[in-house]
Amino acid sequence: MACSIFISGPHGGGKSTLSRRLAVMDRRFIENDFDIDFTVDFPNIASLSPFERCLIRLYHRMFIASYAETLAAKHPDACIVTNRTVYDSEAYINAYRDVGWITAEEFRKLDLVLRNVNVRPYAVVLNPPVTVILQHLEKRRTQGTRSVRDAVFAKEDSESFLTLLHTYFEKFKNDDHVLYLEDDGEASLQRIIRWATQRLRV
Q: Are the C-beta atoms of residues 110 and 62 closer than 8 Å to each other?
């Protein structure tokens, strides 16, 4: 039976690298062939309010989850790996509310959408220590690999915001649909493979 899993966690945590490493390590893992890089494909995102950004990303994640299932049906012996899902939106909108970037009414609307998503997807939550995330982000800034994103979402890269975000992702630790990891080392990769393989056998 085919399966799909999602890689969630704070930005700068290593999600994209983890997806690529899984695909290289085990050919049963296939990266989702569709995504939108909002700072590239939707450059006007810089002019949107925090609420509007949250809303458009939430609806995109709802679509990508449905599309992942379509891909999984085409690859019955594989596991489709997709970057981010609704868990990311849940963590981010809570953090946005706590720092005052969205109003209570805007949070209520976003939360209403989240609470009416019928499926709790299977996801790996990669949530390394904040110090590690800050190191990753500094390296990325130095290399200039995502300079547009870093400018648009600069406020999200502060230690205080990342600490808050880390706390919200930590809440998924005991979720039955989540494999919670704090690093992307070899042992963690093997855990993902075993976890996903069990789903393939269902």
A: no
121 secondary structure, DSSP code: -
All structural domains of the chain, each given as residue ranges with its CATH number in brackets, are: 3-201 (3.40.50.300)
Q: What is the pTM of this model?
A: 0.93
The pair of structure tokens assigned to 187 is 């042992």
User: pLDDT per residue over 147-201, tens digit each?
Assistant: 888 888 889 999 999 999 999 999 999 999 999 999 999 999 999 999 998 876 5
Residue 119 is encoded by which pair of tokens?
């499926």
Q: Return the SS3 of 3.
A: strand
Q: How many CA atoms lie within 13 A of 61 on its CB side?
A: 26
**Strand 79-83 relative to strand 29-31: parallel, antiparallel, unpaired?**
parallel
